[in-house]
Amino acid sequence: RELRRLFGQVVLQVGGTAGFPLIADSLAPVRLHVVFGGEVPKTSHCPVILAEDNLLPFPTDSVDILVLQHSLDISAHPHQVLREAERVLRPGGRLLLFGFNPASSWGLRKLISTPLDSLLPWHARFMRRSQIEDWCRLLNLVPELSRHAVYSLPLAKTGVRKLFKRIEHSMARKEWPIGAVYCLRAKKERNA
């Protein structure tokens, strides 16, 4: 939803599923998707580039909108990923950052995860939104807006999930800060 409200010539997504990027519906003339490791999918909605998570292959100040889809959650160097995002983002450009919320039912589930829980999101790093906002401010990225989403319980049994649907809809309408995922939008200020 937030991405459709932003305009720019060059939109870059870092992280997320390569075959179905969040930026696929963007109206920007140039849409690029960076994935870490793995293989480039045979079909994609925009060009896919393989790269290291802490070194983006783009010039400084060259991107209008940059989407970090759980990139900090899965990186061994989350601060460097954010620093690289700031480097390639042009002054006045926008950063959309998605992360897993440790103060959610999913965060509680992660606390009891085992080494056998190797799938996302259970092996990811759940970082507090306030910590990410502090990092952004240090890098001259001014937080403008944050939202929470995904109020569902991390349960596999559909019967139990159905019981909690009404509660989930209520929490989503009120946008309580306990959703499993947060989205943070920040603007890059001009360099001093």
Attribute tags:
single chain; alpha/beta; Rossmann fold; 7 strands; 26% helix
Describe the structure.
The chain has 5 helices and 7 strands, in the order ββββααβααβαβ. The chain has a 7-stranded mixed β-sheet. The relative contact order is 0.16.
Fold topology:
Layout: E1 10-14, E2 30-36, E3 48-51, E4 63-69, H1 71-74, H2 78-88, E5 89-100, H3 105-111, H4 129-138, E6 141-149, H5 158-174, E7 181-188
Parallel strand pairs: 1-2, 1-4, 2-3, 4-5
Antiparallel strand pairs: 5-7, 6-7
Helix content: 25-40%
Question: What is the total tally of β strands?
Answer: 7
How far apart lie the N and C ends?
32 Å
CATH-level-2 architecture? 3-Layer(aba) Sandwich
The number of helices is 5
Question: What is the topology, as strand order, of the major beta sheet?
Answer: 3-2-1-4-5-7-6
Following the backbone from N to C, one meets helices and strands in this order, namely EEEEHHEHHEHE
* Silhouette: globular
CATH class: Alpha Beta
Largest sheet: 7 strands, mixed
Percent strand: 25-35%
Instruction: Write the CATH fold name.
Output: Rossmann fold
Tell me the domain tally: 1
CATH homologous group name: Vaccinia Virus protein VP39
Low-confidence stretches: none
Mean pLDDT: 82
Which structural class matches the secondary elements?
Answer: alpha/beta
Radius of gyration: 17 Å
